[in-house]
Amino acid sequence: MKTILLCFVLGCLFSCSNFVNTDDIMQRGDKKAAIEDYAGAIEDFTLVIEAKPTNSEAYAERGSAYRVLENYEAAQADLSKALELNPSSYRAHNGQGVLFSDLNEDEKAIESYSAAIDLNPSLAIMYYNRSLSHSALFNYEAAFVDLEAAIELNEKDPDFYYQTGLIYYEIKAYDLSIDEFSTAIQLDSMYSDAILCRGDARDAMANYPEAIQDYNRFIALCPKDPNGYNNRGYTFSKMEDYEPAFLDFDKAIEIDSTYALAYVNKGDAKMDLDRHQEAIQLYKKALEIEPESFIALISLADVYEVKKDYAAAIKCYDKIIELEQDYGEDYLARGLLYIKIKDKEKACLDFEKAVELEDEEAVEALKKYCQ
């Protein structure tokens, strides 16, 4: 950046910063941030800070730009400085909330968003931001309250309805999620994520033809995104229409050869057709890409069990339990495999652990095999 400085000597030197129009530079920085030129925005906000070191908003905006560039240390320093200069800066509190959210410190994020809302309760985006942190903590009731407040303040923002739809999907209220996704799409017909998620909700309700329509629409908008092909292939598999399913899984893999879920879903379709060895190879490929993929490990264990290779299935569950020890169903599944190889002692230990983790089916297994 070329900077031209005009300094006049009239018996003494005046600081060149006196001639900097900080308002214009702030606006220029804001415009750069709006078009995602965050490095350029940082340069402008820095000019403002150099000219006016007490400008809290410049620190707040620069901190937000640093956050987007994942320079979290610099972001925290700037946002803290902004709040030191002006504890009533709702922008700085909101920016700090977003930073905490990025760092998966959602309880702190909620505190920051709440402070911002207390200072300026008329901005919908801050309720929306707080709803995201509530959702991350599985506090869906509070998230709904915030989203309702955001919509009341701005009923034309499709993101608010989309996020509401995601929560309804998460709690398996698929019909309500479809309504919210549809509203988002009405407000923005090009909202590809809402179209994809509505397809997923329709698939979950076994409304396969309309799910396929949504996936078709998503693919038309995002032909280079593998998710549309994978999800459509999954729905075709449920419809037992395997030829287009395989074509879709292959297309997803062609676009992204590291897309582990597409290999798993293709493997599941092979399993439906009793093509066990092909399924095994696909699950193994998924695990090469994501060695800790629970869905690939469980699918691989299932196919080994079908082939009566119980020892191999048990090894899969050994890995699953090594990764996560809090699911009783995994101990139950491994225990039942131990029963099949007549290792009652290990089976009963697994059933006892499953019961400890409150798996109801394990109670019956423990009674049947161990008492």
> What do the pLDDT scores average to?
93
The H-level CATH homologous superfamily of the domain at 16-87, spelled out, is Tetratricopeptide repeat domain
CATH fold call of the domain at 16-87: Serine Threonine Protein Phosphatase 5, Tetratricopeptide repeat
The description of the largest β-sheet is: none
Distance between the termini: 80 Å
Helix content: over 70%
Total DSSP helices: 21
The helix/strand series, from N terminus to C terminus, equals HHHHHHHHHHHHHHHHHHHHH
How many DSSP-defined strands?
0
CATH architectural label of the domain at 16-87: Alpha Horseshoe
Strand fraction: under 5%
Please state the structural category: mainly alpha
Descriptive notes:
The chain has 371 residues and is mostly helical. It has a domain at 16-87: Serine Threonine Protein Phosphatase 5, Tetratricopeptide repeat. 75% of the residues lie in helices and 0% in strands. It has helices at 22-34, 38-51, 56-68, 72-85, 90-102, 106-119, 124-136, 140-153, 158-170, 174-187, 192-204, 208-221, 226-238, 242-255, 260-272, 276-289, 294-306, 310-323, 328-340, 344-356, 360-370. Helix 14 (242-255) packs antiparallel against helix 15. It is elongated. It starts with 21 loop residues before the first helix and ends with a helix. Residues 1-18 have low confidence and may be disordered.
